[in-house]
Specification:
- Two copies of one chain form a homodimer.
- Chain A is of the alpha+beta class.
- The first copy, chain A, has two domains: 95 residues, Jelly Rolls (Sandwich), CATH 2.60.120; 131 residues, Arc Repressor Mutant, subunit A.
- In chain A, the strands form three sheets. Chain A has a four-stranded antiparallel sheet. In chain A, strands 2-7-4-5 form a four-stranded antiparallel sheet. In chain A, strands 9-11-10 form a three-stranded antiparallel sheet.
- In chain A, β10 and β11 form a beta hairpin.
- In chain A, α7 crosses α8.
- The N and C termini of chain A lie far apart (48 Å).
- Chains A and B meet through β1, β5, α5 and α7 of A and β5, α4, α5 and α7 of B.
- Chain A binds a DNA duplex through α8.
DNA sequence: CGTTAACTTGAATTTTGTCAATGCCTGTGG
DNA sequence: CCACAGGCATTGACAAAATTCAAGTTAACG
Protein backbone atom coordinates (compact mmCIF):
# COMPACT_ATOMS: atom_id res chain seq x y z
CA UNK A 1 0.00 0.00 0.00
CA UNK A 2 2.07 2.97 -0.73
CA UNK A 3 5.44 2.28 0.71
CA UNK A 4 8.76 3.92 0.01
CA UNK A 5 9.10 4.57 -3.66
CA UNK A 6 12.61 4.84 -4.95
CA UNK A 7 11.76 8.26 -6.24
CA UNK A 8 12.26 11.65 -4.68
CA UNK A 9 9.13 11.00 -2.69
CA UNK A 10 11.23 11.03 0.42
CA UNK A 11 13.35 14.02 -0.23
CA UNK A 12 10.70 16.25 1.24
CA UNK A 13 11.04 14.53 4.52
CA UNK A 14 14.56 15.63 5.12
CA UNK A 15 14.00 19.33 4.76
CA UNK A 16 11.46 21.45 6.52
CA UNK A 17 11.55 22.84 9.95
CA UNK A 18 14.70 21.32 11.28
CA UNK A 19 16.90 24.08 9.97
CA UNK A 20 14.66 26.99 10.85
CA UNK A 21 14.23 25.90 14.45
CA UNK A 22 15.24 28.47 17.04
CA UNK A 23 18.27 27.74 19.16
CA UNK A 24 16.13 26.21 21.87
CA UNK A 25 13.13 25.10 19.87
CA UNK A 26 10.28 22.86 20.78
CA UNK A 27 12.20 20.05 19.19
CA UNK A 28 14.74 20.29 21.97
CA UNK A 29 12.21 18.76 24.31
CA UNK A 30 12.35 15.63 22.23
CA UNK A 31 15.99 15.64 21.30
CA UNK A 32 17.10 13.01 23.78
CA UNK A 33 14.35 10.58 22.83
CA UNK A 34 15.17 7.75 20.43
CA UNK A 35 13.84 7.86 16.90
CA UNK A 36 11.01 5.47 16.14
CA UNK A 37 10.00 4.41 12.66
CA UNK A 38 6.63 3.67 11.20
CA UNK A 39 6.03 2.05 7.86
CA UNK A 40 3.81 3.77 5.33
CA UNK A 41 0.22 3.04 6.20
CA UNK A 42 0.81 2.03 9.80
CA UNK A 43 -1.00 3.72 12.67
CA UNK A 44 0.60 5.78 15.43
CA UNK A 45 -2.61 5.68 17.43
CA UNK A 46 -6.37 5.52 17.10
CA UNK A 47 -9.07 7.88 18.20
CA UNK A 48 -10.09 6.92 21.69
CA UNK A 49 -6.75 5.43 22.68
CA UNK A 50 -5.35 6.63 25.97
CA UNK A 51 -3.42 9.76 25.07
CA UNK A 52 -0.25 8.78 26.84
CA UNK A 53 2.23 10.28 24.40
CA UNK A 54 3.02 13.30 22.32
CA UNK A 55 5.00 12.78 19.12
CA UNK A 56 7.30 15.01 17.13
CA UNK A 57 7.49 14.28 13.44
CA UNK A 58 11.14 14.07 12.42
CA UNK A 59 10.80 12.76 8.89
CA UNK A 60 7.97 11.78 6.56
CA UNK A 61 4.30 12.69 6.48
CA UNK A 62 1.37 11.71 8.70
CA UNK A 63 -2.35 11.98 8.16
CA UNK A 64 -4.79 12.60 10.97
CA UNK A 65 -8.40 11.71 10.36
CA UNK A 66 -11.75 10.74 11.76
CA UNK A 67 -14.13 8.06 10.59
CA UNK A 68 -17.91 8.49 10.57
CA UNK A 69 -20.18 5.69 11.68
CA UNK A 70 -20.69 4.30 8.21
CA UNK A 71 -17.04 4.35 7.26
CA UNK A 72 -16.70 7.72 5.57
CA UNK A 73 -13.27 9.16 6.29
CA UNK A 74 -12.36 12.81 6.75
CA UNK A 75 -8.70 13.71 6.87
CA UNK A 76 -8.33 16.82 8.99
CA UNK A 77 -4.65 17.38 8.41
CA UNK A 78 -1.30 16.25 7.11
CA UNK A 79 1.65 16.60 9.45
CA UNK A 80 5.21 17.30 8.39
CA UNK A 81 8.61 17.29 10.10
CA UNK A 82 8.60 19.71 12.99
CA UNK A 83 4.91 19.21 13.71
CA UNK A 84 3.61 17.82 16.99
CA UNK A 85 1.00 15.08 17.19
CA UNK A 86 -1.27 14.29 20.09
CA UNK A 87 -1.26 17.58 21.97
CA UNK A 88 -4.86 17.68 23.08
CA UNK A 89 -5.09 18.10 26.87
CA UNK A 90 -7.48 15.15 26.89
CA UNK A 91 -7.34 11.67 28.34
CA UNK A 92 -7.94 10.10 24.94
CA UNK A 93 -6.78 10.95 21.44
CA UNK A 94 -9.38 12.79 19.42
CA UNK A 95 -8.39 11.37 16.04
CA UNK A 96 -6.50 8.66 14.24
CA UNK A 97 -2.91 9.19 13.17
CA UNK A 98 -1.28 7.13 10.43
CA UNK A 99 1.93 7.29 8.46
CA UNK A 100 1.42 8.38 4.85
CA UNK A 101 5.06 7.79 3.94
CA UNK A 102 7.66 5.96 6.03
CA UNK A 103 7.87 8.14 9.09
CA UNK A 104 10.37 8.86 11.83
CA UNK A 105 9.13 10.33 15.10
CA UNK A 106 10.25 11.01 18.61
CA UNK A 107 7.95 10.11 21.49
CA UNK A 108 7.43 11.92 24.74
CA UNK A 109 5.10 11.15 27.62
CA UNK A 110 2.19 13.58 27.65
CA UNK A 111 2.66 14.33 31.31
CA UNK A 112 6.34 15.12 31.13
CA UNK A 113 5.76 17.08 27.95
CA UNK A 114 3.35 19.36 29.73
CA UNK A 115 5.70 19.72 32.63
CA UNK A 116 8.57 20.58 30.34
CA UNK A 117 6.48 23.15 28.55
CA UNK A 118 5.16 24.62 31.73
CA UNK A 119 8.60 24.98 33.25
CA UNK A 120 10.15 26.68 30.25
CA UNK A 121 9.19 30.29 29.68
CA UNK A 122 11.00 30.01 26.37
CA UNK A 123 9.17 26.97 25.00
CA UNK A 124 5.74 27.96 26.19
CA UNK A 125 5.16 30.75 23.71
CA UNK A 126 6.49 28.55 20.94
CA UNK A 127 3.92 25.88 21.64
CA UNK A 128 1.27 28.52 21.99
CA UNK A 129 2.23 29.98 18.65
CA UNK A 130 2.14 26.56 17.04
CA UNK A 131 -1.39 26.06 18.29
CA UNK A 132 -2.42 29.42 16.90
CA UNK A 133 -0.90 28.55 13.53
CA UNK A 134 -2.78 25.28 13.57
CA UNK A 135 -5.99 27.09 14.36
CA UNK A 136 -5.38 29.52 11.52
CA UNK A 137 -4.90 26.76 8.96
CA UNK A 138 -7.91 24.91 10.32
CA UNK A 139 -9.93 28.02 9.58
CA UNK A 140 -8.51 28.28 6.09
CA UNK A 141 -9.46 24.67 5.54
CA UNK A 142 -13.01 25.36 6.73
CA UNK A 143 -13.24 28.16 4.19
CA UNK A 144 -12.02 25.80 1.49
CA UNK A 145 -14.46 23.06 2.44
CA UNK A 146 -17.37 25.34 2.89
CA UNK A 147 -17.13 27.61 -0.11
CA UNK A 148 -14.64 26.47 -2.75
CA UNK A 149 -15.39 24.30 -5.77
CA UNK A 150 -13.35 21.28 -6.79
CA UNK A 151 -10.87 23.18 -8.92
CA UNK A 152 -10.29 25.82 -6.27
CA UNK A 153 -9.74 23.11 -3.69
CA UNK A 154 -7.19 21.27 -5.79
CA UNK A 155 -5.31 24.44 -6.68
CA UNK A 156 -5.31 25.62 -3.07
CA UNK A 157 -3.99 22.26 -1.98
CA UNK A 158 -1.22 22.10 -4.56
CA UNK A 159 -0.13 25.61 -3.64
CA UNK A 160 -0.13 24.61 0.02
CA UNK A 161 2.18 21.72 -0.81
CA UNK A 162 4.30 24.05 -2.90
CA UNK A 163 4.67 26.41 0.01
CA UNK A 164 5.77 23.66 2.35
CA UNK A 165 8.82 22.78 0.36
CA UNK A 166 10.66 26.01 0.92
CA UNK A 167 11.34 27.23 4.40
CA UNK A 168 10.89 30.83 3.40
CA UNK A 169 7.91 32.11 1.51
CA UNK A 170 8.82 31.25 -2.03
CA UNK A 171 6.56 28.76 -3.66
CA UNK A 172 8.40 26.01 -5.37
CA UNK A 173 7.01 25.18 -8.78
CA UNK A 174 8.10 21.57 -8.42
CA UNK A 175 5.58 20.00 -6.08
CA UNK A 176 5.81 16.57 -4.59
CA UNK A 177 2.53 14.95 -3.57
CA UNK A 178 3.35 12.33 -0.96
CA UNK A 179 -0.22 11.11 -0.52
CA UNK A 180 -2.60 9.17 -2.75
CA UNK A 181 -5.58 10.57 -4.62
CA UNK A 182 -7.82 9.02 -1.98
CA UNK A 183 -5.98 10.90 0.75
CA UNK A 184 -6.36 14.11 -1.21
CA UNK A 185 -10.04 13.43 -1.76
CA UNK A 186 -10.68 12.73 1.91
CA UNK A 187 -8.83 15.90 2.85
CA UNK A 188 -10.55 18.10 0.29
CA UNK A 189 -14.05 16.77 0.76
CA UNK A 190 -14.23 15.33 -2.75
CA UNK A 191 -14.20 11.91 -4.36
CA UNK A 192 -11.17 10.28 -5.87
CA UNK A 193 -12.72 10.63 -9.32
CA UNK A 194 -13.28 14.34 -8.99
CA UNK A 195 -9.70 14.83 -7.83
CA UNK A 196 -8.45 12.86 -10.80
CA UNK A 197 -10.62 14.68 -13.32
CA UNK A 198 -9.67 18.08 -11.97
CA UNK A 199 -5.96 17.35 -12.13
CA UNK A 200 -6.39 16.01 -15.66
CA UNK A 201 -8.14 19.23 -16.59
CA UNK A 202 -5.36 21.37 -15.12
CA UNK A 203 -2.82 19.38 -17.11
CA UNK A 204 -4.92 19.66 -20.27
CA UNK A 205 -4.90 23.43 -19.94
CA UNK A 206 -1.15 23.54 -19.45
CA UNK A 207 -1.43 24.95 -15.96
CA UNK A 208 0.53 22.09 -14.45
CA UNK A 209 2.48 19.14 -15.82
CA UNK A 210 2.91 15.74 -14.34
CA UNK A 211 5.97 13.51 -13.91
CA UNK A 212 4.57 10.40 -12.32
CA UNK A 213 1.60 10.35 -10.03
CA UNK A 214 3.33 12.02 -7.14
CA UNK A 215 5.19 14.85 -8.78
CA UNK A 216 3.66 17.80 -10.53
CA UNK A 217 5.14 21.01 -11.78
CA UNK A 218 3.35 24.32 -11.78
CA UNK A 219 3.63 25.96 -15.19
CA UNK A 220 1.27 28.89 -14.77
CA UNK A 221 1.68 30.09 -11.23
CA UNK A 222 -0.42 33.22 -11.69
CA UNK A 223 -3.29 31.16 -13.06
CA UNK A 224 -2.96 28.71 -10.19
CA UNK A 225 -3.10 31.50 -7.65
CA UNK A 226 -6.17 32.92 -9.29
CA UNK A 227 -7.87 29.53 -9.50
CA UNK A 228 -7.15 28.90 -5.84
CA UNK A 229 -9.76 31.53 -5.26
CA UNK A 230 -8.32 33.30 -2.27
CA UNK A 231 -8.55 36.56 -4.10
CA UNK A 232 -5.59 38.61 -2.93
CA UNK A 233 -2.76 37.00 -4.81
CA UNK A 234 -0.02 38.86 -3.08
CA UNK A 235 -1.52 39.20 0.32
CA UNK A 236 0.76 39.73 3.27
CA UNK A 237 -1.48 37.27 5.14
CA UNK A 238 -0.21 34.13 6.70
CA UNK A 239 3.35 34.18 5.65
CA UNK A 240 2.51 31.02 7.48
CA UNK A 241 5.76 30.16 9.17
CA UNK A 242 7.14 31.73 12.33
CA UNK A 243 8.45 35.27 12.22
CA UNK A 244 5.30 37.12 11.21
CA UNK A 245 3.93 37.07 14.69
CA UNK A 246 3.49 39.89 17.09
CA UNK A 247 6.64 40.56 19.01
CA UNK A 248 4.88 40.74 22.32
CA UNK A 249 4.76 37.82 24.65
CA UNK A 250 7.29 38.73 27.27
CA UNK A 251 8.46 36.42 30.00
CA UNK B 1 -31.39 43.58 11.36
CA UNK B 2 -32.05 41.01 13.91
CA UNK B 3 -32.27 42.82 17.19
CA UNK B 4 -33.35 41.67 20.61
CA UNK B 5 -36.64 39.90 20.43
CA UNK B 6 -38.67 39.85 23.58
CA UNK B 7 -38.48 36.11 23.55
CA UNK B 8 -36.08 33.83 25.31
CA UNK B 9 -33.64 34.63 22.58
CA UNK B 10 -31.43 36.27 25.12
CA UNK B 11 -31.73 33.83 27.93
CA UNK B 12 -29.01 31.80 26.36
CA UNK B 13 -26.60 34.60 26.83
CA UNK B 14 -26.73 34.60 30.57
CA UNK B 15 -25.86 31.00 31.08
CA UNK B 16 -22.89 29.18 29.67
CA UNK B 17 -19.46 29.29 31.07
CA UNK B 18 -19.96 31.73 33.87
CA UNK B 19 -21.13 29.16 36.36
CA UNK B 20 -18.63 26.46 35.49
CA UNK B 21 -15.71 28.86 35.70
CA UNK B 22 -13.08 27.95 38.30
CA UNK B 23 -12.58 30.29 41.22
CA UNK B 24 -9.98 32.24 39.29
CA UNK B 25 -11.14 31.76 35.76
CA UNK B 26 -9.96 33.32 32.54
CA UNK B 27 -12.81 35.77 32.88
CA UNK B 28 -11.10 37.24 35.93
CA UNK B 29 -8.52 38.78 33.65
CA UNK B 30 -11.27 40.87 32.15
CA UNK B 31 -13.35 41.46 35.24
CA UNK B 32 -12.16 45.00 35.90
CA UNK B 33 -12.75 46.13 32.33
CA UNK B 34 -15.91 48.01 31.47
CA UNK B 35 -18.64 46.32 29.47
CA UNK B 36 -18.97 47.46 25.88
CA UNK B 37 -22.04 46.91 23.76
CA UNK B 38 -22.39 46.16 20.08
CA UNK B 39 -25.65 46.26 18.18
CA UNK B 40 -26.69 43.22 16.20
CA UNK B 41 -24.87 43.24 12.89
CA UNK B 42 -22.12 45.60 13.91
CA UNK B 43 -18.46 44.65 13.56
CA UNK B 44 -15.98 44.23 16.40
CA UNK B 45 -13.10 44.20 13.97
CA UNK B 46 -12.15 43.23 10.44
CA UNK B 47 -9.64 40.80 9.09
CA UNK B 48 -6.37 42.65 8.66
CA UNK B 49 -7.00 45.21 11.39
CA UNK B 50 -4.19 45.68 13.86
CA UNK B 51 -4.86 43.04 16.52
CA UNK B 52 -4.60 45.40 19.44
CA UNK B 53 -7.26 43.82 21.63
CA UNK B 54 -8.62 40.58 22.93
CA UNK B 55 -12.33 40.41 23.79
CA UNK B 56 -14.32 38.31 26.16
CA UNK B 57 -17.92 37.69 25.19
CA UNK B 58 -20.14 38.46 28.17
CA UNK B 59 -23.55 38.25 26.54
CA UNK B 60 -24.92 37.58 23.09
CA UNK B 61 -23.52 35.77 20.09
CA UNK B 62 -20.76 36.68 17.62
CA UNK B 63 -19.90 35.30 14.22
CA UNK B 64 -16.37 35.10 12.92
CA UNK B 65 -15.91 34.73 9.19
CA UNK B 66 -13.74 35.22 6.15
CA UNK B 67 -14.67 36.58 2.77
CA UNK B 68 -13.28 35.22 -0.50
CA UNK B 69 -12.22 37.53 -3.29
CA UNK B 70 -15.55 37.38 -5.09
CA UNK B 71 -17.63 37.94 -1.99
CA UNK B 72 -18.41 34.40 -0.86
CA UNK B 73 -18.57 34.29 2.90
CA UNK B 74 -17.52 31.41 5.14
CA UNK B 75 -18.42 31.61 8.80
CA UNK B 76 -15.83 29.68 10.75
CA UNK B 77 -17.47 29.93 14.12
CA UNK B 78 -20.08 31.36 16.44
CA UNK B 79 -18.89 32.65 19.80
CA UNK B 80 -20.89 32.58 23.02
CA UNK B 81 -20.51 34.06 26.49
CA UNK B 82 -17.27 32.95 28.03
CA UNK B 83 -15.48 32.69 24.69
CA UNK B 84 -12.44 34.77 23.82
CA UNK B 85 -12.09 36.61 20.53
CA UNK B 86 -8.89 37.77 18.89
CA UNK B 87 -6.33 35.50 20.52
CA UNK B 88 -4.10 34.86 17.54
CA UNK B 89 -0.51 35.80 18.35
CA UNK B 90 -0.44 37.80 15.15
CA UNK B 91 -0.06 41.46 14.41
CA UNK B 92 -3.34 41.52 12.51
CA UNK B 93 -6.66 39.80 13.04
CA UNK B 94 -7.11 36.75 10.84
CA UNK B 95 -10.88 37.05 10.44
CA UNK B 96 -13.86 39.35 10.75
CA UNK B 97 -15.93 39.42 13.93
CA UNK B 98 -19.50 40.71 13.98
CA UNK B 99 -22.34 40.70 16.47
CA UNK B 100 -25.15 38.29 15.56
CA UNK B 101 -27.36 39.45 18.42
CA UNK B 102 -26.84 42.52 20.60
CA UNK B 103 -23.56 41.72 22.31
CA UNK B 104 -21.76 42.71 25.47
CA UNK B 105 -18.01 42.26 25.67
CA UNK B 106 -15.04 43.20 27.77
CA UNK B 107 -11.90 44.42 26.06
CA UNK B 108 -8.31 43.83 27.03
CA UNK B 109 -5.13 44.93 25.31
CA UNK B 110 -3.44 42.00 23.56
CA UNK B 111 -0.13 42.82 25.14
CA UNK B 112 -1.36 42.98 28.70
CA UNK B 113 -3.53 39.93 28.13
CA UNK B 114 -0.53 37.88 27.15
CA UNK B 115 1.40 39.23 30.09
CA UNK B 116 -1.38 38.37 32.47
CA UNK B 117 -1.66 34.88 31.09
CA UNK B 118 2.03 34.30 31.14
CA UNK B 119 2.41 35.46 34.71
CA UNK B 120 -0.34 33.27 36.05
CA UNK B 121 0.43 29.56 36.30
CA UNK B 122 -3.25 29.10 37.06
CA UNK B 123 -4.67 30.85 34.02
CA UNK B 124 -2.18 29.51 31.54
CA UNK B 125 -3.48 25.94 31.40
CA UNK B 126 -7.02 27.28 31.17
CA UNK B 127 -6.22 29.26 28.08
CA UNK B 128 -4.33 26.33 26.70
CA UNK B 129 -7.29 24.05 27.29
CA UNK B 130 -9.59 26.54 25.62
CA UNK B 131 -7.40 26.55 22.55
CA UNK B 132 -7.41 22.76 22.46
CA UNK B 133 -11.20 22.73 22.72
CA UNK B 134 -11.40 25.20 19.89
CA UNK B 135 -9.12 23.02 17.80
CA UNK B 136 -11.26 19.98 18.55
CA UNK B 137 -14.43 21.65 17.39
CA UNK B 138 -12.68 23.03 14.34
CA UNK B 139 -11.83 19.45 13.43
CA UNK B 140 -15.39 18.32 13.96
CA UNK B 141 -16.49 21.12 11.70
CA UNK B 142 -14.03 20.01 9.03
CA UNK B 143 -15.51 16.51 9.20
CA UNK B 144 -18.97 17.98 8.83
CA UNK B 145 -18.00 20.15 5.86
CA UNK B 146 -15.98 17.51 4.17
CA UNK B 147 -18.19 14.44 4.47
CA UNK B 148 -21.71 15.16 5.68
CA UNK B 149 -24.74 15.83 3.50
CA UNK B 150 -27.15 18.70 3.99
CA UNK B 151 -29.43 16.87 6.41
CA UNK B 152 -26.56 15.62 8.53
CA UNK B 153 -25.13 19.11 8.65
CA UNK B 154 -28.39 20.66 9.81
CA UNK B 155 -29.00 17.98 12.42
CA UNK B 156 -25.43 18.23 13.72
CA UNK B 157 -25.80 21.97 13.97
CA UNK B 158 -29.12 21.91 15.79
CA UNK B 159 -27.72 19.36 18.24
CA UNK B 160 -24.72 21.60 18.78
CA UNK B 161 -27.00 24.50 19.63
CA UNK B 162 -29.02 22.21 21.89
CA UNK B 163 -25.89 21.23 23.77
CA UNK B 164 -24.88 24.84 24.32
CA UNK B 165 -27.94 25.71 26.32
CA UNK B 166 -27.19 23.53 29.29
CA UNK B 167 -23.96 23.93 31.18
CA UNK B 168 -23.69 20.21 31.74
CA UNK B 169 -24.03 17.69 28.98
CA UNK B 170 -27.78 17.32 28.75
CA UNK B 171 -29.21 18.33 25.45
CA UNK B 172 -32.13 20.64 25.68
CA UNK B 173 -34.95 19.79 23.32
CA UNK B 174 -35.95 23.43 23.09
CA UNK B 175 -33.40 25.01 20.81
CA UNK B 176 -33.00 28.67 20.16
CA UNK B 177 -31.39 29.63 16.86
CA UNK B 178 -30.01 33.13 17.31
CA UNK B 179 -28.70 33.48 13.76
CA UNK B 180 -30.41 33.82 10.39
CA UNK B 181 -30.70 31.11 7.75
CA UNK B 182 -27.97 32.87 5.82
CA UNK B 183 -25.63 32.62 8.79
CA UNK B 184 -26.42 28.94 9.13
CA UNK B 185 -25.83 28.40 5.42
CA UNK B 186 -22.49 30.18 5.47
CA UNK B 187 -21.43 28.17 8.50
CA UNK B 188 -22.56 24.81 7.12
CA UNK B 189 -21.30 25.28 3.58
CA UNK B 190 -24.79 25.27 2.07
CA UNK B 191 -27.17 27.77 0.50
CA UNK B 192 -29.98 29.46 2.30
CA UNK B 193 -32.47 27.50 0.17
CA UNK B 194 -30.99 24.13 1.06
CA UNK B 195 -31.04 25.04 4.75
CA UNK B 196 -34.66 26.04 4.45
CA UNK B 197 -35.71 22.94 2.52
CA UNK B 198 -33.92 20.64 4.93
CA UNK B 199 -35.55 22.18 7.97
CA UNK B 200 -38.92 22.01 6.26
CA UNK B 201 -38.32 18.34 5.60
CA UNK B 202 -37.40 17.66 9.23
CA UNK B 203 -40.58 19.38 10.33
CA UNK B 204 -42.62 17.44 7.77
CA UNK B 205 -41.34 14.18 9.22
CA UNK B 206 -42.18 15.25 12.75
CA UNK B 207 -38.55 15.19 13.86
CA UNK B 208 -38.63 18.80 14.96
CA UNK B 209 -41.31 21.46 15.33
CA UNK B 210 -40.99 25.16 14.85
CA UNK B 211 -42.25 28.10 16.89
CA UNK B 212 -41.16 31.11 14.91
CA UNK B 213 -38.03 31.23 12.81
CA UNK B 214 -35.63 31.20 15.70
CA UNK B 215 -37.03 28.54 17.96
CA UNK B 216 -37.31 24.87 17.21
CA UNK B 217 -38.10 21.94 19.40
CA UNK B 218 -36.61 18.49 18.98
CA UNK B 219 -39.34 15.87 19.01
CA UNK B 220 -37.38 12.79 18.03
CA UNK B 221 -34.00 13.08 19.68
CA UNK B 222 -32.87 9.57 18.80
CA UNK B 223 -33.66 10.17 15.14
CA UNK B 224 -31.82 13.49 15.24
CA UNK B 225 -28.77 11.86 16.74
CA UNK B 226 -28.81 9.20 14.05
CA UNK B 227 -29.31 11.73 11.27
CA UNK B 228 -26.43 13.82 12.58
CA UNK B 229 -24.30 11.00 11.29
CA UNK B 230 -21.66 10.87 13.96
CA UNK B 231 -22.62 7.31 14.79
CA UNK B 232 -21.30 8.14 18.20
CA UNK B 233 -23.51 6.29 20.66
CA UNK B 234 -22.29 2.79 20.02
CA UNK B 235 -18.82 2.56 18.69
CA UNK B 236 -17.28 -0.88 18.86
CA UNK B 237 -14.17 0.80 17.44
CA UNK B 238 -12.85 -0.11 14.02
CA UNK B 239 -15.82 0.17 11.75
CA UNK B 240 -12.99 1.10 9.45
CA UNK B 241 -13.90 -1.19 6.63
CA UNK B 242 -11.26 -0.45 4.14
CA UNK B 243 -9.28 2.02 6.14
CA UNK B 244 -7.88 -0.21 8.84
CA UNK B 245 -4.43 -1.17 7.85
CA UNK B 246 -2.74 -4.22 9.17
CA UNK B 247 -0.77 -3.37 12.23
CA UNK B 248 2.67 -3.57 10.92
CA UNK B 249 4.85 -1.71 13.31
CA UNK B 250 8.45 -2.18 12.46
CA UNK B 251 11.47 -0.81 14.16
C1' DC C 1 8.41 -8.91 -15.26
C1' DG C 2 3.95 -9.88 -13.61
C1' DT C 3 0.34 -8.66 -10.28
C1' DT C 4 -2.36 -5.66 -8.27
C1' DA C 5 -3.49 -1.47 -6.28
C1' DA C 6 -3.87 3.14 -7.77
C1' DC C 7 -5.48 6.04 -11.09
C1' DT C 8 -8.11 7.62 -15.16
C1' DT C 9 -12.05 8.03 -18.02
C1' DG C 10 -16.97 7.77 -19.34
C1' DA C 11 -22.00 7.72 -18.68
C1' DA C 12 -25.86 8.00 -15.74
C1' DT C 13 -27.66 9.70 -11.39
C1' DT C 14 -28.13 12.46 -7.35
C1' DT C 15 -27.52 16.31 -4.66
C1' DT C 16 -27.14 20.86 -4.17
C1' DG C 17 -27.13 25.41 -6.26
C1' DT C 18 -29.42 29.09 -9.02
C1' DC C 19 -33.10 31.88 -10.35
C1' DA C 20 -37.53 33.54 -9.49
C1' DA C 21 -41.80 34.22 -7.22
C1' DT C 22 -44.51 34.09 -3.10
C1' DG C 23 -45.36 34.05 1.88
C1' DC C 24 -44.69 35.30 6.47
C1' DC C 25 -42.32 37.30 10.63
C1' DT C 26 -40.56 41.18 13.05
C1' DG C 27 -39.96 45.43 14.44
C1' DT C 28 -41.33 50.14 13.21
C1' DG C 29 -44.17 53.80 13.09
C1' DG C 30 -48.78 55.31 13.29
C1' DC D 1 -51.65 48.45 20.54
C1' DC D 2 -52.15 47.45 15.85
C1' DA D 3 -51.14 47.72 11.00
C1' DC D 4 -47.85 47.72 7.63
C1' DA D 5 -43.42 47.44 5.17
C1' DG D 6 -39.40 45.28 4.20
C1' DG D 7 -36.37 41.84 5.23
C1' DC D 8 -36.15 37.04 5.84
C1' DA D 9 -37.72 32.64 4.70
C1' DT D 10 -40.10 29.23 1.92
C1' DT D 11 -41.20 26.95 -2.23
C1' DG D 12 -40.82 25.52 -7.10
C1' DA D 13 -38.62 24.66 -11.57
C1' DC D 14 -34.49 24.14 -13.67
C1' DA D 15 -29.30 23.90 -14.13
C1' DA D 16 -24.84 22.72 -12.68
C1' DA D 17 -21.55 20.34 -10.07
C1' DA D 18 -20.08 16.43 -8.02
C1' DT D 19 -20.98 11.48 -6.95
C1' DT D 20 -21.73 6.86 -8.23
C1' DC D 21 -21.11 2.95 -10.94
C1' DA D 22 -18.47 0.70 -14.29
C1' DA D 23 -14.75 -0.24 -17.23
C1' DG D 24 -10.21 0.40 -18.70
C1' DT D 25 -5.24 1.95 -18.03
C1' DT D 26 -0.93 2.75 -15.70
C1' DA D 27 2.69 2.21 -12.79
C1' DA D 28 4.59 0.62 -8.22
C1' DC D 29 6.39 -3.20 -5.75
C1' DG D 30 7.43 -7.80 -5.01
Amino acid sequence: MHSASSLPRQTMSTSQTAASQPALGLASVFSDKPIEQFAAGSPLFWEGDQAKHVFEVVEGVLRIFKILGDGRRAITGFLYPGDLVGVSMRAAYLYNAEAVTPVKVRRFSSVSFQEAINLSPELRPQLFAKLCDEMASAQDQMVLLSRKNAEERICSFLLLLAKRVSRDNNLSTEVEIPMTRLDMADYLGLTIETVSRTITSLIGRGIITQAGRHDISIKKLDTMLRLAGNGEVDEPRASSREYSRQAVWPS
